[in-house]
Task: inverse folding
């Protein structure tokens, strides 16, 4: 079964609408996708409905921003198959506010270097629930300061090593809080693209915090790194997922839906893991009730 469990839409930092994304998946023969917009659950219900209309299985998902204090990095945790997604709304809302605050600072810094307005950047982000680096770059493209989202200007503005960077870091909750919130909502917590965020060496500690799985197949990891991740996940008896991180024209590389190269049984194994966790939860609940009698 062809699948892609990591796709963004216009609701966050992708360039395609939900229906366009699903139609693209259909045309490319991708049978299952997960819409994993950043800190945004708005597309899950609509995605499911549109997916059924076009014969594409859309798995409910969201990518939640988190902070790892040990490395000082902001990372992301993917949530899949959530039973009660409304329980994550508060956390997502707080993250959205933190991101908007940082985005406003970055827009002001960009406006000091280039004759663009924050209003124009906001216009470039029409349809999104927030402002992302890609939207600032889109505004600079529209005004003729670059002809691509990524490249020399992007590195100048958004690389930590650049003395002229305009980066403003958002303040997100710690990893254990995010994992706990996902579990409270009945979802599976999967570490997103560990090599992209530079936390591959932290996976075991995240597992100790309750992590359910790791995104093994992602463009940010080469074949050797993917093999190492798969070995670690298999040993821990957790779930391995994969996805392209597709953002349309905002993608960092030339990539389309389904280009993640993960095994065909990944989706069925994700569902099996979810079913196993539900059985364990019911067993634990029954044991607790019997002990209380």
Result:
């Amino acid at each position: 079964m062809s699948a892609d469990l990591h796709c963004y839409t216009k609701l966050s930092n992708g360039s395609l609408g939900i229906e366009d994304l699903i139609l693209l998946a259909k045309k490319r023969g991708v049978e299952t996708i997960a819409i994993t917009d950043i800190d945004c659950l708005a597309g899950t219900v609509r995605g499911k409905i549109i997916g059924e209309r076009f014969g594409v299985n859309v798995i409910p998902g969201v990518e939640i921003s988190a902070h790892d204090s040990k490395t000082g990095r902001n990372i992301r945790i993917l949530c899949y198959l959530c039973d009660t997604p409304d329980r994550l709304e508060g956390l997502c809302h707080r993250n959205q506010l933190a991101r908007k605050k940082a985005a406003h600072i970055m827009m002001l810094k960009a406006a000091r270097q280039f004759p663009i307005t924050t209003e124009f950047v906001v216009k470039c982000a029409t349809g999104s629930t927030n402002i992302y680096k890609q939207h600032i770059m889109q505004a600079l493209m529209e005004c003729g300061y670059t002809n691509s989202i990524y490249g020399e200007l992007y590195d100048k503005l958004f690389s930590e090593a650049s003395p002229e960077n305009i980066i403003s870091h958002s303040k997100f909750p710690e990893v254990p809080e995010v994992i706990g919130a996902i579990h409270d909502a009945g979802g599976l917590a999967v570490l997103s693209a560990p090599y992209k965020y530079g936390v591959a060496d932290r996976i075991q500690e995240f597992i100790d915090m309750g992590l359910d799985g790791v995104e093994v197949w992602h463009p940010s990891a080469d074949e050797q790194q993917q093999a190492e991740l798969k070995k670690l996940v298999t040993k821990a008896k957790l779930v391995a997922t994969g996805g392209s991180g597709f953002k349309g024209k905002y993608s960092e590389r030339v990539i389309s839906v389904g280009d993640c190269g993960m095994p065909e049984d990944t989706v069925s194994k994700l569902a099996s893991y979810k079913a196993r966790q539900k059985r364990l939860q019911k067993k634990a609940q029954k044991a607790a009730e019997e002990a209380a009698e």
